[in-house]
User: Fold these one by one.
Assistant:
Number 1:
Amino acid sequence: MSQHLSENLPVSSMTALRASEADTPQKAKWWKEAVVYQVYTRSFSDSNGDGIGDLPGLIDRLDYLQSLGVQVIWLAPHYDTPNVDNGYDIRDYRAVDPLQGTMADFDRLVAGLHERGMKLIVDLVINHTSDQHEWFRQSRSGPDNPYRDFYIWRDGRDDGPPNNYLSIFGGSAWEKDEASGQYYLHYFAKEQPDLNWENPKVRQEVYNMMRFWLDKGVSGFRMDSICFISKLPGLRDLTLAEMESLEHVYVTGPKIHDYLQDMHHEVLVDRDLLTVGEAFGVSFEDTPAFVSEARNELTMVFHFEIVRIGRHDWQVQDWTIKDLKAVLRGEETSSGPDGWLTSFLENHDNPRSVSWFGDPSPKGHGPSAKALATLLIMRRGTPYIYQGEEIGMTNIHFDGIEDFQDINAKGIWNNTVGIGKMSAEEVLHSLRRVTRDNARTPMQWDASNHAGFTTGLPWFRVNPNHIDINVAQQDADPNSILNYYRTLIQLRASQKTLIYGDFEDVDPDHPAVIAFTRTLGDDQFLILINMCGETEHYILPHGLKIAEVLLDNMSASVENVLPNLKPWQAGIYRLAPPADI
Ligand code: ISL
Ligand code: CA
């Protein structure tokens, strides 16, 4: 990890970046000032007792989301789907999944958000469709069908697939179609065939579909797996090293920027949208090309270096706070001089942050969840809160493989334990910690049966700790994690410096404390986060001195924030001007 970073992070380039930003102040944009809340609809709120979250259930919770202070909702795929990958396999891009509701519900959702001064961005899954999509059904029907070329078909080689590409979910990335004898490419499950972006008709269909949702009032898109849409010419075999990190290869298609610029020109231009690309596999160095405002591609991207710290693919490994700080600094550079960043610690594909970076035990839970919230909201970049993160929802316990729902976890199991390559215990040890299922347990609204998520039987287990960790209880407690989030979000909204200010890690070498400043002109804040469960004797570097406490999760006063930082203590402080030091 550190080796990878040092390549991306020459000290000189950091200095250069800061200087150039000072020369060209960041342009104000609504999507830089907003805090986004990610809704994984299926697990959010069920209105009709079928055990599956839905759009009317979400509409019922809009007052709650407004009370949190978030301005934008990112909605998980709401499209018609056979649900092989919980909606990331789309059967019809212009219809709403009947399990989630109707088009009228979607329209009510947009209206309900707009009434509250809020906006909606939708998930855009255009690297692949479902194998049940009409285009694929046509495509599969034979080599002469006009839709054949909507997907990527190749002849096999030596009685096997066309090359050795692997699926991100495990196994070959090629599936043989018995009727024609040809294979189609799927970077994810075999029920998720990859679209052929070389085909201009595919691009036009996608653009028309995007305009359809924009006309319905959506304010942007979260673009799923977007950096995978350009395939490598010739589809050569992968080396063994490449097989270990597929995402780094699959993002190197030579036409990715052509496609994104074309999409921008055709659909996005002049609409002032939030466009966030999932950049799984894109290095920090290569990111400015995607997010530079001058280039007209995306407004920001998600990197996975932070949420994936402490794991190699799905296997857990040791990590340190210093590693984390190095990644934070590296990611900082990824905006380039005129791009923007995201900040997130959770999403629907990763474990709960309080279980991964914090301490989910009763003693550490509240303080560590607040410490992480401080990092999430106070970094430079648009913060994304994942549902339940604002109450410190935790991972859930898994006994055996039968407890998992995640198609990814099942794939990993089949490719390891299933073929006798690893022991069940060894694989479970990692899977329990990293499975995407951890993020997908139903939202914990209250202490009642099924956590107030549904009146029926929930599609997936409710975490038994909903008795102690839930919205109702935290809403009523002024010192709760939830209310700390509310304060953090208000604070960010009230201080331009906390939105547009430069970021500087002022203590890269400290092994436990994250200390960074946010600076805009003469205005400067210090953010301190004790990332461990021990009291840290801490002296600020460079003679810096705290002059005012804006927020502190231990309610410390100016006199007693330092020198002893309590376990998981965190806060935002104004620094004394240099003359007073
Ligand atoms: O979990 C991951 C990153 O932490 C990746 O393996 C993930 O699969 C990758 O980022 C792509 O994810 C997206 O596309 C998938 C879908 O299953 C995920 O839920 C989605 O976020 C296929 O559409
Ligand atoms: Ca339902």
Note: Residues 46-48, 50, 52, 54 surround calcium ion (ligand 2) (CB under 6 Å).
Number 2:
Amino acid sequence: MSARQVTLHDKSFSVYFPSEDIRLAVQKVAGEIERDLNGETPLFIGVLNGVVPFAADLLREMQVDCEITFVKLSSYSGTKSTGQVSVDLGLNEKIAGRTIVVLEDIIDTGLTVEKILNLLEGENPKTVKVASLLYKPDAFKGNYKVDYVGKEIPNEFVVGYGLDYDGLGRNLKDIYKIVE
Ligand code: XMP
Ligand code: MG
């Protein structure tokens, strides 16, 4: 059993999605991606650091051949988006002609993924889709479609299962939301 409530730094969080709900959401996303593949071998591009648990579980739900690589971008400081996205680790893979699925733990303003989509644009991929475990539609300002969503959530700060509050909380098995 995991704790119903946790404290990270100066803030308290209560369970929002237990691990079993997360597992079902990951299976749903994997199934939808597979359904759309038409025999292609996708290259997943995961956004570090938060995507690690989601990417690891999603990959193991995929029944077809697939590849994965990672990029690292940052936009968050504490519990707020700074509005600026910096690329800390870029792409080395050959993208031309590939079926790409960008993987995120959470899409909030959408700026991080927009930056990746802009980087990919010049590399002539065959198709680019976006998959995110969590999606905050009320915060989203992007100019693109989020093709696969595990769960839509209101505009609240969440941690666990890869998501952090200033570095802590990524190891939690459940997803928690902030107690205001
Ligand atoms: P944007 O706004 O670019 O944000 O879509 C994407 C990145 O911001 C982080 N993020 C969060 N991290 N709880 C977190 O722990 C949240 O509620 C949250 N909202 C956004 C995350 O790193 C994501 O990749
Ligand atoms: Mg992230």
Note: The radius of gyration is 16 Å.
Number 3:
Amino acid sequence: MALLILGGTTEAGLLAERVAAAGIAAEVSLAGRTKSPARQPLPMRIGGFGGIEGLKTWLGEHRTRVVVDATHPFAARIAANAAVACAALGVPLCRLTRLQWSPVAGDRWIDVASAEAAVEALPSRPARVFLTVGRLELDAFAVAPKHFYLVRTIDAPEPPPALPNMRLILDRGPFDADAEEKLMRSHVVRWLVTKNSGGKATSGKLAAARRLGLPVVMIRRPEKPEVETFQSVDDTMTWIAAHLPAS
Ligand code: NAP
């Protein structure tokens, strides 16, 4: 198999379409976090590899020639595992990731390193908080049950987080700024907590917070190993073509 795409993102799906159209023998790997993953135009495998050693074994068994890490900017472990496994086997690896968000005039961002630090950044008095950090990070907020949390996730958190004063919305983007402003107004939101995922599909909440003058607690991206990184599918396709030995 020529190419392995580590997926689970919009960008990985777009890349898979281009790779399929180019007739490259490839497979997409998903962790299996979402209940109904988007259909892929390529063969798909689901589930962890079993750490670095498991990934090395898989790459060897499938005679993988190149790997593209197109996982989410916050998926740090698989990115690290891919870097180590590919380096050990001499398999070229690149990353496809979306640009991160940067503050613009009018933004009131508080930069933090983790969900735990985000809770610390919230005020000491009870506040009304819009939480868009993904369902796996919600438990960190249980230490501050005094706040009202408007929580939005794609799939329902299982088990539900221990947040006594919570309203859960299940929804998948894109979300535009007008709708986000309306949502924040209707729930009298005063704080936004989010991860710096980047991309256009979910940036509407940032524009809405700016319009409403609300502080945003922004969880910064985790460190990842340095590998050649692209923001566009076009550039990634060029890299793939350059690194796939002619067969
Ligand atoms: P992670 O912490 O980096 O990975 C945890 C473990 O999950 C990895 O060690 C690996 O297990 C397995 N894994 C992760 N991505 C995989 C993939 N594409 N294919 C096969 N196994 C994978 O990642 P995560 O934060 O749990 O994210 C999991 C997946 O969800 C990623 O594919 C990512 O693109 C997507 N996602 C993540 C976020 C987020 O905020 N973290 C948001 C949206 C989508 P083994 O060690 O057993 O191989």
Note: Residues 49 and 98 are 24 Å apart (CA to CA).
Number 4:
Amino acid sequence: MQQYIKLATFNLANNKQDVTIKVVNSQEATNPYPQIEGDKISFEYTLDKISLESINALCSKIAADVKAHNSGFNLEIDSSLNAELIIESLLLALSDINIFKSSYTEPQTYDVYMSEQLAASYPSAYSRATAYNLTRTLNHLPHSLCNSQTLSESIVELLDDPRFKITINRLSQCQELEMHGVLALSQGSRYEPAVIRVEYSQGSGKRVGLVGKGVMFDSGGYNIKSGDITSMKTDMAGCGAVIGTLKAISSLDLEVNVVAYLMTTDNLINEQAYIPGDIITYSNGVTVEVGNTDAEGRLILADGLLLMEQENCDVVIDIATLTGNSAVALGKSYSPIFSTNDEVTSIFTSLNETSTDKVWPLPIASEYVEFIKGNISDIRNTSSTKNGGSIIAAVFLHHFAPNTNWVHIDMGAMSRKEEFGAPVNGFGVRLLTNFIETYCTKS
Ligand code: BES
Ligand code: ZN
Ligand code: ZN
């Protein structure tokens, strides 16, 4: 992949700079106005609760002030705040995401003077920013540059670490592995599907499985979407989040065991495309009638979850832009999380306090199984009721992970939130990285 958002960097300076950037919590706030003393100028910013919006607003302001002064700076962050997250976000804010504008400017290296303690958090903040930046880049690229073909050609280079064992399954391997959901979707595309398996085995702890929805463009298929569908190039954001997470765990050198499946294909239309009424028979024997070709994500995740049955994971997590209904259920600040294990759920929700990627549990409601019962098949990919769309999708997926510690994250609502001047972000990278760190190394 040629076009790539370049990331700003810090050069850790030994000498004090003329500009001082001070981030404090609201109790410590003293003066919102810049303090000027001769050549020196000092800015104070406050941060209260951590959210994607508050961190982004803070870092956008800092980036604007730093750029306006076109100089290095002293960075001070109150010890009560998550310095690593602030530095990560600042690196992202100082980088121009708009690579397709002729006004695009390459980011700079800034001389930054920090305390020893703060400087110690820079390398991991930079690693995390690199991972996040990779994900938002993939989400930002149009389908012509980021599709199952280009991704499978560049995944080794993107992950860039020999500790990853990477297997790329194209059409014939998908046939051998009986991935009938992926095969059904890929019929409509000129690109072969790519189901990419990535393994990172370090240390002897728990093993986490990740499955990412990689619908590289979701037109809706023959149940074609109406209105503006340009944003549906980001229907691979679950896959993007998994790639960024893999990047993060390797850059941070985490001693963890992770196996991932990137489920990439398209939901497009041609003469061969799958159509409503088709029946898909999965490798576990479950038959699914296609009630709606736009409920395609669950059809390919089903294959991914079935592949995970062979992987002996302690927990399997899928992440997907699965339903628009996720925004109806929880709004745009929390992603629904569905889990068969309460302990795992509580690890996820406990991470909410210190992260931008917030989740909240919804039930895998057995009462709703009847709504997806098929007339001529076992189940359907659509519901007989219009309510509870996110839960219905989870209930569908549960048929393909019946005996696993399983988590499903529906990031539909979060995927298109604007960040730093473009309608994409890297939701999921922080969430999954923090989870893996906590689950594998601390419990
Ligand atoms: N990719 C969409 C969900 C989506 C919509 C994500 C908007 C982000 C923003 C998914 O494939 C889809 O179309 N879901 C349908 C399901 C319905 C047909 C049962 C939906 O949510 O409307
Ligand atoms: Zn769809
Ligand atoms: Zn979709």
Note: The two ends are 38 Å apart (CA to CA).
